[in-house]
Amino acid sequence: MTDHVLTRVANGTGVITLDRPKALNSLSLPMVRRLTDILLAWRDDAGVAAVVLTSSSEKALCAGGDIRFFHEAGHATPMAGSALLEDFFTEEYALNYLIHFYPKPYIALMDGVVMGGGMGIAQGGPGTGLRIVTERTKMAMPEVNIGLFPDVGGSHFLSHAPGRLGNYLGLTGLTIGAADALYADLADVFVPGAQLGALHALVETTPGAQLADAIRRFGARFAADAGDSVLRAQRAAIDLHFGAGSVAAIMASLEGEDSAFAQKALGAMRQRSPLMMCVTHEMLVRGASMQVADCLRMERSLVRRNFEHGEVLEGVRALVIDKDNAPRWNPATLQEVKPEMVEAFFAPAWPAHAHPLRHLD
C-alpha cells in the first residue's frame, strides 16, 4: 500500500505523488502513515525547502478516506475492527494537524476530485500553504451523505469560510468548482489544466525556497479564467437561509424560496442523515471559536460517537456496498432528532489526559 505514495526531491522541493488511481487516491491507513513519515522527515531536512502534493491522475487528487475500509473494519471482529478504525482516524487527524502547521510552504495541486480526507491533506496552514485549483476541480465535504460529518479539520476551515458558506457546504455536501473554491477561501490560485505541464516545469526549475511565490506569479495571469462563482452570486441567499439557527429552520427557510439554487440545496439536505446534519450544524457553531487542535480533538470524539451509533456504517452500506441508495437513517426524520441526541455526540469520549490527540498544541 505504501507504493501508492511516491516521493522525490527536485531542486529543493519535495514532491509527493499519490498513486492509487483506481480508488481516486482514497486514503488508507498505510498511506496516512507514509505521508506522515515523509512530512516529518522533510520538516527537519535542510535540503527540502517546500513540499508539493500532487497526483498521478488528473481525475483526482484524493477522493477522501477509504470508506470501504470503514465499513469492513466496522463489521470486523470487534477488537481488530475497532483498533484499525481508532488508528486510522487518530493518525489521519494528526496528519491534518501536521500539514496545517507545516513550517515550510506546502503546495497542494487540487486537480480533479478533492473531497473529505482529500481536503484534510490539501488545506495547508495559513501563510505557508498554497492551494491550486483547475477547471477539473470537484471539491466537496460530502460526509453527511454517508452519515458522517465534515471532519479532517472541517470544523475549522468550514466554520471560517466567509459568511454562511461553511454551513451551506457542510450541510448539503454539494460539489463546487474552481471559482467557488476560490471565493470560499478554500483555494488560492487557479491554473488551467492545459498549463499544468508548465507548472510542473516550474517546480523542477525553481529553487524550493522561491517556489510558492513563483507559482503565485505564474497563476496570476490566469486569475480571470477561473470563471464566475455561483456562491458569490448566491451569497445573500446563502447567508439568509443558512444563517438560520437550526437545521430545521434552514430547511424551512429554503422551502420558502422557489429558486433552482435553493431547491437544489433543499433536495440535497432531504437525502442526508438528519442526525448528522444536526451534529454538523452544532460542530460548526462550536468550531468557529476553537483553535485547530481543539477542533480536531472534538472531531475525533465525534467519530467515536458516530461509529458507536452506526450511522456511517449504514450510509456506506447504502451508497457504496449495496448501492441501493436507500439509507435507513436513525432517526429517520429531522423531527425525530432531539437536542439530547445531538448533545450526546459532544460528550467527551475520553478524559482529557487520555484523549488520543492530547499531544496537539
Automatic annotation (TrEMBL):
Name of the protein this chain belongs to: Enoyl-CoA hydratase/isomerase family protein
Keyword Ribosomal protein: no
Species this chain originates from: Massilia jejuensis
Domain of life: Bacteria
KW Chaperone (keyword) present: no
Pfam families in the record: ECH_2 (PF16113)
Enoyl-CoA hydratase/isomerase domain mapped to chain residues: 14-346
Keywords: Hydrolase
